[in-house]
Fold this sequence. Notes:
Elements: H1 5-19, E1 24-29, H2 33-38, E2 56-62, E3 65-70, E4 74-79, E5 84-89, E6 101-105, E7 110-115, E8 120-125, H3 126-129, H4 133-138, H5 148-151, H6 154-163, H7 168-172, H8 184-194, H9 207-226, E9 264-268, E10 271-275
Antiparallel strand pairs: 1-6, 2-3, 3-4, 4-8, 5-7, 6-7, 9-10
Helix pairs in contact: 1-9, 6-9, 8-9
The structure holds zinc ion (ZN).
The site of zinc ion has 7 residues, from loops.
Amino acid sequence: MSVELPEAYILAKQMDCELQGKQIEKYEFRNYQKLQKIGFINKCVADFDRLLGGRVDSVISRGNVICVKLDNGANLLLAPEYGGRIQYHPEESSAPEKFHFKLVFSDGVALTVTLTGMGVIQALNDEELKGSYIYKRDFLTTAQSPLGEKEFRFDQFAKGLTIKTVNIKAALVGKDALVVGLSNSAFQDVLYRARIHPKRKASTLTEAEKLAVYDAIRLVVQKRIQSGGKNQFLDLYGKQGSYTPAMGPNMKDKACPECGAKVQQLSLGGGQVYYCPKCQT
Ligand SMILES: [Zn+2]
């Protein structure tokens, strides 16, 4: 199950609560060579030695990326963006046999990370963080985070849409987006709720439509967090999320609950997008 902004936020909060102040005693990699070859893990596994002895200062997230900050200047970056799990184990002995990365703390609790799709497990010092692609993309970007009113401001968002000559999808999803952490899945959900056709150009949106998109982004992110994540997501303790998107592959061949029209599908920006041909204009 992919871990996107709402799920990364849930995991980071839970990890912060469980791990703060705990000291890292050891780590272990299993069956990781393939992931390392693709660049998901540091080229040199011994880089993870820098985590040893460090205490967890805080666990934060932005976009899809989780950063475990230690008091010794080391950081553990985790981003199971396209699939993976992060699990907490009250005792090391309760950890599963299969994992890619395991951390054990001096009080005996353990954390395991398994990637099932594209993702990242990296140990980086503060200086190296600035060179990390995903850290730059989600933490150091000027793109806003759609979490909370303070950070996500409508005036700024609306202005950004006005000057974007691109399709609305490119304005909301991907490396040049105005916001971090929105995936193709969130995009379909947001556009259906905002009643906007997925092929619209960002700059053609009226003020009312921009506000509808802004409100829908906040609603989707907040609902997903309140529901414990998307419906196949498992949190740090294995609890399953219950959020079902209003529009997406789950609506394939179904009728729009609003108007009864048959849900349509199109290829857009390297992904399939479902939408209602009547409600979304
Ligand atoms: Zn409809």
